[in-house]
Design brief:
By secondary structure, the protein is α/β, with parallel strands linked by helices. The protein has a single domain, classed as 3-Layer(aba) Sandwich (Undecaprenyl pyrophosphate synthetase). It is built from 7 helices and 6 strands. The chain has a 6-stranded parallel β-sheet, sandwiched between helices. β3, α4 and β4 form a beta-alpha-beta unit. It starts with 10 loop residues before the first strand and ends in a 14-residue tail after the last helix.
Length: 242
């Protein structure tokens, strides 16, 4: 593996794009692309542990993905269920906390059960966090956060004038996670596809032509080195004072 850069992001998110195209170019069913994509997810998760990245978020299934053919949805849900069952002990052994964001109540019962078991089994793990976005949409997340905030106002716990960015952020799905530093999208597309819209306000964006099933340690390290070479200004002027 390429040597890690000196500057490491606290939180990396990945839009894992290109499974279908990877399979089509090889004359394989789309399901095979998803299977190979799961290997990339495992490789990137392990790489995060090796270089010391505290939090990794993977965009596994969006709210828009429910419009895909039912056969593909069924495969993805069953694949997720099996993945969690197979990897749960490994998460515990490697001290990885597994958590999810999104409208997980929309998932099939058997998938929700595996998610719950995995979250409970890893609740006390502290080395790093694997956060998986399931039935997730960035706009929907903000709507849900606004609803939670509105309920507090309705119940007399909060005054409307007290609502600011920090209050709303505390009601997002990602409230307990580090600030997002780096967003990676594979597959050649250069859009964010309704993912972590609030969280990416000051994140660095990295796009690669590599399809997700081919995205492994070397590609991930290239993204980390690109991040380390950037000068993050956060709206300010480097070196300015006063």
């Amino acid at each position: 593996m390429t040597e890690a850069p000196d500057k490491i992001p606290r939180h990396v998110a990945v839009i894992m794009d290109g499974n279908g195209r990877w399979a089509r170019r090889r004359g394989l069913p789309r399901q095979e692309g998803h299977r190979r994509g799961a290997d990339s997810a495992k490789a990137v998760t392990e790489c995060c542990g090796e270089v010391g990245i505290p939090c990794l978020t993977l965009f596994a299934f969006s709210t828009e993905n429910w419009s895909r053919p039912q056969e593909e949805i069924d495969f993805l849900m069953d694949h997720l269920r099996r993945y969690l069952a197979d990897e749960r002990d490994g998460f515990v052994e490697n001290d990885i906390r597994f958590r999810t964001i999104g409208r997980t109540h929309e998932l099939p019962d058997e998938v929700r059960d595996e998610v719950r078991r995995t979250e409970e089994a890893t609740a006390d793990c502290e080395a790093r966090t694997l956060n998986v976005a399931l039935s997730f949409g960035g706009r929907q997340e903000i709507v849900d956060a606004a609803r939670r905030t509105a309920r507090r106002v309705r119940d007399g716990e909060l005054e409307p004038e007290e609502i600011d960015e920090a209050v709303l952020a505390d009601h997002l799905d990602t409230a307990d996670l580090p600030e997002l530093d780096l967003l990676v999208r594979t597959g050649g597309e250069r859009r964010v596809s309704n993912f972590l819209l609030w969280e990416m306000s000051y994140a660095e964006l990295y796009f690669t032509e590599t399809l997700w099933p081919d995205f492994r340690e070397d590609e991930f390290m290239a993204a980390l080195h690109d991040f380390a070479d950037r000068e993050r200004k956060f709206g300010g002027v480097p070196g300015a004072s006063g």
